[in-house]
Design a protein that fits this description.
globular, two-stranded antiparallel sheet, TIM Barrel, 12 helices, 315 residues, alpha/beta, 15% strand, 8-stranded parallel β-barrel
C-alpha cells in the first residue's frame, strides 16, 4: 500500500485504542515545512499518536511532490502512529487523488448534499479507499464558520441522532464527524454561556457504541495567542473558542478525534508578529519563521497533553 512506504498508518487502530482508553487523537492541520515540523516534533516529544491534516487548498498550495517529499523527509516509523489525512475533501476525485499519492486517511465532506446523496458519495469513496487500506471519515450535519476557501459554510445543522445508524451502515465509513455546536474559524461562539450539545453527543454515542466520532471546528482559541497578535499589530476582536473543559467532556463521552486548525494559525501568527515587533531591524526569515514554528510546537504539546490526553499512549 502506497502510504506504508512513508511509514504512515491509517487511523483504525489508533481510534480503537483511543476509544478503549478515553482519549482523543489530535488532527493538526499544517500548511508548510514549519508547521509540519512543529506538529510532528510535538507528537514525538509527547510520545503521542497524531494525525497530520491537509485541506484541499493546503495541498494545492504545497503541491503533491513537495508535500510527499516533506513527509518522506520525516523518516516516520509505523510505531510512531502518524497518519496523513485529507481534511474536507469535497469530491470523489479529491479523495482518490489524495489516496493515490500516499494519504492514509481521507475525509469526504458531502454534508452540503442531501442525506441520500451524502450516503451515495461517502459509500463510493469508502469502497475505493478500503481496497487500498485507507480509512474514511464522513460528515453528517453541517458546521458553520469560515476557515479558508476550502472550509467555509453558512449552514449550521445539528446532527440528527436518528440518522447516524443508517448513515454509517450504508456508507461503511470508519469515522463520523458530527455537528454539536462547534464552528470553523476563530469566532466559534457568540457568548461565553454557549455550550456544546452534549445531549446530541450522548444519543449518538449510545446508538453507535465504540464507533469513532470526530469533532471539527473545535479549536480552543487561546486568549494569550489572540492577545499577543493584537498587541503586536494585529486586529482579531471577539475571537472565542471552545472551552477546554467542554472539549475534555466531549472526549469522555466518545469523541476520539479533535481537529485543530485555527489554534495553530493563531500560534504561528503570534510567534511571527512578536518576533518582528521585538526585532524590527531583523529580516532573516529563519528567525521569525522559527518563532512561529516554536509557537505551534508549544501549542500542540499543550493540547495533546491537556485536551486530547493522548501523551504517552504509544505502546
Amino acid at each position: 500500500m502506497l502510504y506504508e512506504k512513508f511509514g504512515l498508518v491509517n487511523t483504525r487502530d489508533m481510534f480503537a485504542d483511543a476509544i478503549a482508553h478515553r482519549y482523543a487523537i489530535g488532527a493538526f492541520n499544517f500548511y508548510n515545512m514549519e508547521t509540519l515540523i512543529a506538529v510532528t516534533s510535538a507528537a514525538r516529544e509527547t510520545n503521542s499518536p497524531v494525525i497530520l491534516a491537509v485541506s484541499e487548498s493546503a495541498l494545492q498550495y504545497m503541491g503533491d511532490d513537495m508535500l510527499m517529499s516533506m513527509i518522506a523527509g520525516l523518516r516516520l516509523s509505523p510505531n510512531e502512529q502518524i497518519a496523513l489525512h485529507l481534511d474536507h475533501g469535497h469530491s470523489f476525485e479529491s479523495c482518490t487523488h489524495a489516496i493515490d499519492i500516499g494519504f492514509s486517511s481521507v475525509m469526504i465532506d458531502a454534508s452540503a448534499l442531501s442525506f441520500r446523496e451524502n450516503i451515495a458519495l461517502s459509500a463510493r469513496v469508502a469502497k475505493y479507499a478500503h481496497t487500498r487500506g485507507v480509512a474514511v471519515e464522513a460528515e453528517l450535519g453541517a458546521i458553520d464558520g469560515h476557515e479558508d476557501e476550502n472550509t467555509t459554510s453558512s449552514r449550521k445543522v445539528f446532527t440528527d441522532p436518528n440518522d447516524v445508524y443508517e448513515f454509517v451502515a450504508q456508507t461503511n465509513i470508519d469515522s463520523l464527524a458530527i455537528a454539536i455546536g462547534t464552528s470553523h474559524g476563530a469566532y466559534k461562539r457568540r457568548s461565553d454561556s454557549e455550550q456544546l450539545r452534549f445531549d446530541i453527543l450522548g444519543e449518538i454515542a449510545h446508538i453507535l457504541p465504540r464507533f469513532p466520532l470526530v469533532l471539527h471546528g473545535a479549536s480552543s482559541i487561546p486568549e494569550i495567542l489572540v492577545k499577543t497578535i493584537n498587541q503586536n499589530g494585529g486586529d482579531i476582536s471577539a475571537a472565542r473558542g471552545i472551552p477546554t473543559d467542554q472539549l475534555r467532556q466531549a472526549v469522555l463521552m466518545g469523541i476520539c478525534k479533535i481537529n485543530v486548525d485555527s489554534d495553530s494559525r493563531l500560534a504561528f501568527t503570534a510567534g511571527v508578529r512578536l518576533e518582528m515587533s521585538e526585532n524590527p531591524c531583523g529580516f532573516n526569515p529563519r528567525e521569525y519563521l522559527g518563532l512561529g514554528t516554536s509557537a505551534v510546537y508549544e501549542n500542540a504539546i499543550d493540547e495533546i497533553t491537556n485536551i486530547m490526553n493522548s501523551a504517552n499512549r504509544l505502546h
